[in-house]
Amino acid sequence: MSAQPIEEAAINELVQRLRDRGWRLTAQRRVVAEVLSGEHVHLTADDVYGRAQRLLPEISLATVYNTLNELVSMGEVLEISAGDGPKRYDPNTAAAHHHLYCVECGTLRDINPEGTDGLALPASQQHGFELLDVDIVFRGRCPDCRATARSATA
Amino acid sequence: MSAQPIEEAAINELVQRLRDRGWRLTAQRRVVAEVLSGEHVHLTADDVYGRAQRLLPEISLATVYNTLNELVSMGEVLEISAGDGPKRYDPNTAAAHHHLYCVECGTLRDINPEGTDGLALPASQQHGFELLDVDIVFRGRCPDCRATARSATA
DNA sequence: GTATATGCAAAGCATTTGCATTAAA
DNA sequence: TTTAATGCAAATGCTTTGCATATAC
Fold it and tell me: What is the DSSP string of A81-99?
């Protein structure tokens, strides 16, 4: 079994980009970047902490938060706060996409922007705002939670 | 000057509806309902507390939170958590609408669903979810924050 | 009279911050 | 060597909760 060369390349690319912007490459930051890579990833800070600890036991939660905030303000990671519960971090900044959120368990899924890309705020409703982006969150109940509800009722 | 009869009628209607559902009408609950009525209202729990205190000085923040949560679970008030900061409470549940959010100061504005009502998630992307609703939040900077940024830079 | 809501203060959770120590450049 | 990142623990902000008292019904 070989390592995952594609993933690794993506991480190195990201790390290089950040390095070019004057980022100091520490073991902690590399590990956070590693954990947060891939598609359809929507981890909470605590999730990231847990996975990062497996790779680097001495990493601290504060550092995870600091690093996540840096990645967010550098535009490398998206911060999503849908409904209650902790924020989730989404590394998929390249492809515009929206989310499907389970109101029961908080799970998030990416969805393609199909059919939503024509969506724009009419000038008459901009109220003088400088528009930056649109968040579209479809809310519902995921298959797991539907199944649980069904068996609980039975 | 007379009182606002329209507002008052709306509150009484709401209160009656809740009473019918077995709600005990206390001074505190009435005051929260009063404070939260009207259009384009997006108060935080603390805002509600402040205004409620003016009408009923002995009300407590805990009661405000309890009452807000009850109103939300009864479907009389919408809970909006856009971005950082505290949740906001929106009594406008009758007319479907979306929001314009200032990423700088957290201000929210209602916008009509014009042009967004055709928005639906294609079946191919529902991933087995039972869909409940869609939240659309346009993010940007409000006129006030744009002005502040301009004068700070100048 | 009885069940339920209130107020208070304490606890909870997610997140941030201050500061001495450590490590990248 | 210098400057910045780390870890820890304490602090913060928002929200919830437990329990004795007060109140609507």
Answer: --SSS--EEE---SS--EE
Under-70 pLDDT residues of chain B: 1-5, 115-118, 152-154
B132 to chain A: closest CA residue? A140
B103 touches chain A (CB under 8 A): yes
| Cβ-based contacts of B116 with chain A (< 8 Å) | 119
Architecture per CATH, domain A95-153, reads as 2-Layer Sandwich (3.30)
- Which of B130, B145, B146 would best serve as a mutation to test chain A binding (most A beta carbons within 10 A)? B130
**pLDDT value at A110 more than 60:** yes
Q: Which CATH number fits domain B8-80: 1.10.10.10, 1.20.1600.10, 2.60.120.10, 3.40.50.620?
A: 1.10.10.10
- pLDDT score, position B147: 86
Q: How many helices (H) and strands (E) does chain B have?
A: 5, 6
Question: Rounded to two decimals, what is the model's pTM?
Answer: 0.87
How far does Cα A150 stand from its chain's mean position? 30
